[in-house]
UniProtKB/TrEMBL annotation:
Keyword annotations of the record: Glycosyltransferase, Ligase, Phosphoprotein, Pyridine nucleotide biosynthesis, Transferase
UniProt organism field: Streptomyces xiangluensis
Function in brief: Catalyzes the first step in the biosynthesis of NAD from nicotinic acid, the ATP-dependent synthesis of beta-nicotinate D-ribonucleotide from nicotinate and 5-phospho-D-ribose 1-phosphate.
Name of the protein: Nicotinate phosphoribosyltransferase
Family membership: Belongs to the NAPRTase family.
Length: 463
């Protein structure tokens, strides 16, 4: 069974119906975020690379057909039209690391309708989760104001794959390392880690634990000092580090309590012991809000280790993302339902200085100094560009971040820029809306009138 079955059932039922009806014309679907989540001034595009990997290898095999048939309680022969389906379409997208705004397409898929429909769920899953996490991590980097930030999220993320993605994406936006060994090895990241409280508790005293750890690990070490009494733990750590001449590169970690006040105390103890090079690492329920507060308070913390709240984006754990058809067989389409109106036609986003973005049609000329954001990254089911490195994506993020208005970069109460709609797209939307009102909604009204007339006639018949 392949990843083709990682889909919602209704994608299968729709694809089957399309095939039986001969509806295999080209369709374009646009993936976008309707509204910015609370506390966000921008989003960092992510999830594209895993989506392209999925599309490149997408093929419905016999085992997949059997799975679909089982889910639908139908014989496999009924699902046979799906057998051998591959993704043969095009993808245009904002490359990973690019900053996007609400309403802007992160990617557009153009493919035969059954193909474009069947891949919806997987792509939404990847882009939604990874963009959520990348955006949260980016705010931590902003909050740290130049201090290193490291990822400690694996044990609390929603599964190992989510933990791997958190490590990768946090590195993309500027984290200095991760505790995730698998991600560090696969992605070439710096692996970081200290010790747990259980390690301290396993020994008779903190000093015995610190000395044993130092014997096992030559070179700089990081000692966890808050198992019992934090201030005393720092004093013991300072004595051990000084005795073993392990000062430069070593650190103490604070994981609980009033981190700002404890950091001040720890710094004073370390400096008095002649260990000005020993760093202070803070962890324990941190996110961008806590980091921002600590930095603003002047706490002498050198490294921030963030975990749970960032790995699950606790304050905004999802995006109101959508994957909507905007054109079928050359006919622009749109949705008119309340609060979820969509814009028709394949699109492009044109970025102007100050993030004065314009959402327009994909083939219109850029307005003024506008630079198109969506690039063709897949054609005929194959990648058209090399996979970017994390450094490439990080450079793109840094360049976009540098142009972001200060109000959007704020940690507290950020103000997100709003993209505007081009004149050509506005005209097309009005045309399509009027066509729907004339052809579809008018037919509904005629049907209701006919039903009322028929009901009235029945009531007037003698009994």
């Amino acid at each position: 069974m392949s990843d083709a079955t990682t889909t919602d059932l209704y994608e299968v039922t729709m694809a089957m119906s399309y095939l039986r009806e001969g509806m295999t014309g080209p369709a374009t679907f646009s993936l976008f975020v309707r509204d910015m989540p609370p506390g966000r001034g921008f989003l960092v595009a992510a999830g594209l690379e895993s989506s392209l990997d999925f599309l490149s290898g997408f093929r419905v095999d016999a085992e997949d057909v059997d799975s679909f048939a089982s889910a639908l309680h139908r014989p496999p022969r009924d699902l046979a039209p799906l057998l051998g389906m591959e993704f043969t379409g095009q993808v245009r997208a904002v490359p990973e690391g690019g900053i996007v705004l609400a309403g802007e397409p992160l990617l557009e898929v153009a493919a035969p309708l059954p193909e474009a429909q069947l891949v919806e769920t997987y792509i939404l899953n990847q882009v939604n989760h990874q963009t959520t996490i990348a955006s949260k991590a980016a705010r931590c980097v902003l909050a740290a104001a130049g201090h290193p930030v490291v990822d400690f999220s694996l044990r609390r993320t929603h599964g190992p794959q989510a933990g791997f993605q958190a490590a990768r994406l946090s590195a993309m936006v500027g984290f200095a390392g991760t505790s995730n060994v698998a991600a560090a090895t696969a992605e070439g990241l710096s692996a970081v880690g200290t010790m747990a409280h259980s390690y301290i508790e396993a020994f008779g005293t903190e000093e015995a634990a610190f000395r044993a750890f130092a014997r096992s690990h030559p070179g700089p070490v990081t000692l966890l000092v808050d198992t019992y009494d934090t201030e005393e733990g720092v004093r013991i750590a300072a004595r051990v580090l000084r005795d073993l001449d392990r000062g430069p590169g070593s650190a103490v970690r604070l994981d609980s309590g009033d981190l700002g006040a404890l950091a001040q105390t720890a710094r004073a103890i370390l400096d008095a012991a002649g260990l000005p090079d020993v760093r202070i690492i803070a962890s324990g329920g941190l996110d961008e809000y806590a980091v921002d507060e600590l930095v603003r308070s002047g706490a002498p913390i050198d490294v921030y280790a963030v975990g749970t709240r960032v790995g699950v984006s606790a304050d905004a754990p999802f995006l109101d993302s959508a994957y909507k058809m905007v054109e079928y067989d050359g006919r622009p389409v749109m949705k008119l339902s309340s609060a979820k109106v969509t814009a028709p036609g394949p699109k492009q986003v044109f970025r102007r200085p100050g993030f004065a973005d314009v959402i327009g049609l994909h083939d219109e000329q850029p307005p003024g100094a506008g630079v198109p954001l969506l690039e063709t990254v897949m054609q005929n089911g194959s990648r058209t560009v090399e996979r970017p490195t994390l450094d490439d994506s990080g450079e793109r993020f840094a360049a976009d971040l540098a142009g972001l208005p200060p109000a959007a970069r704020r940690i507290q109460a950020p103000l997100a820029p709003r993209a505007t709609i081009s004149g050509q797209l506005t005209v097309l939307a009005d045309q399509v809306r009027h066509r729907i009102e004339d052809e579809v909604l008018a037919s509904f009204a005629n049907l209701r009138n006919h039903e009322r007339s028929a009901t009235g006639s029945q009531r007037s018949q003698p009994r």
